[in-house]
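Section 5: illustrative case.
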């Protein structure tokens, strides 16, 4: 109904944006520059942000643009578990049947990573998403994966992605070996007030609409409710458009936006 009412060619404000139509915010520009440096120098990086700020989207979008002949992406979306669980997941990502014992697992992973670099000329990039959920022993294992050879080669690039809690965890003394290895880091904020207006226009244009569908008061109310956090912006904007269509309103006004806020944001 909403799509037909406004004439959308596709539904705007998706949580899974087309990489070719990603909004080039100042934060995304900063993240992309740091990730590019990280990949070129084969180091360790840290990307944090509030829930819904676009951390995972940024990491996935950037790595999707890398040459698959040169890089192998190892993506672990962590929920919880032991060090052994992480090593087993990593072994499977490396197309290795996991050994039963931890020492054998580490050897398998090390050999597979070296083999990728030396035989296939393919550099592995390990992304640990939701890394704030990693247990302390698991975080302590990560530097060992980066330091399994006696030479000075960097066979593995590591990117930790997580909520602000991850930074506080890494500040603990026990994680000094991992913290010292972090070459680039960035904390992803929400869109600025000015960027929000541009983002709304960008999303509507991608859906086939050039005229503004949010008036000034609605845009201000949207920013106040979301602080520019992308997931909240998308959810609230989509709810507001749905309500406007159900009321036959040609645009979203403040009253509609406020009604949408009570429905979309708990």
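Designed sequence:
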């Amino acid at each position: 109904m909403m799509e037909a009412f406004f004439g959308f060619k596709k539904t705007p404000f998706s949580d899974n944006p087309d990489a070719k139509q990603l909004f080039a915010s100042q934060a995304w520009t900063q993240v992309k520059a740091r990730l590019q440096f990280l990949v070129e120098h084969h180091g360790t990086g840290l990307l944090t942000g509030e829930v819904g700020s676009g951390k995972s989207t940024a990491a996935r979008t950037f790595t999707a643009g890398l040459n698959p002949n040169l890089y192998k992406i190892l993506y672990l979306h962590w929920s919880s578990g032991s060090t052994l669980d992480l090593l087993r997941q990593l072994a499977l990502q490396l197309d290795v049947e996991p050994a039963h014992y931890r020492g054998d697992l580490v050897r398998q992973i090390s050999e597979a990573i070296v083999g990728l670099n030396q035989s296939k000329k393919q550099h592995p990039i390990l992304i640990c998403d939701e890394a704030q959920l990693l247990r302390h022993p698991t975080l302590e294992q990560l530097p060992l994966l980066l330091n399994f050879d006696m030479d000075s080669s960097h066979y593995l690039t590591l990117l930790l992605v997580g909520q602000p809690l991850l930074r506080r965890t890494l500040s603990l003394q026990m994680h000094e070996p991992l913290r010292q290895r972090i070459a680039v880091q960035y904390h992803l904020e929400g869109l600025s007030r000015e960027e929000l207006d541009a983002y709304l226009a960008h999303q509507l244009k991608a859906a086939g609409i050039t005229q503004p569908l949010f008036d000034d008061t609605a845009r201000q109310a949207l920013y106040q409710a979301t602080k520019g956090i992308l997931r909240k912006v998308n959810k609230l904007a989509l709810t507001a458009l749905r309500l406007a269509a159900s009321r036959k309103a040609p645009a979203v006004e403040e009253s509609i936006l406020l009604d949408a806020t009570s429905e979309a944001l708990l």
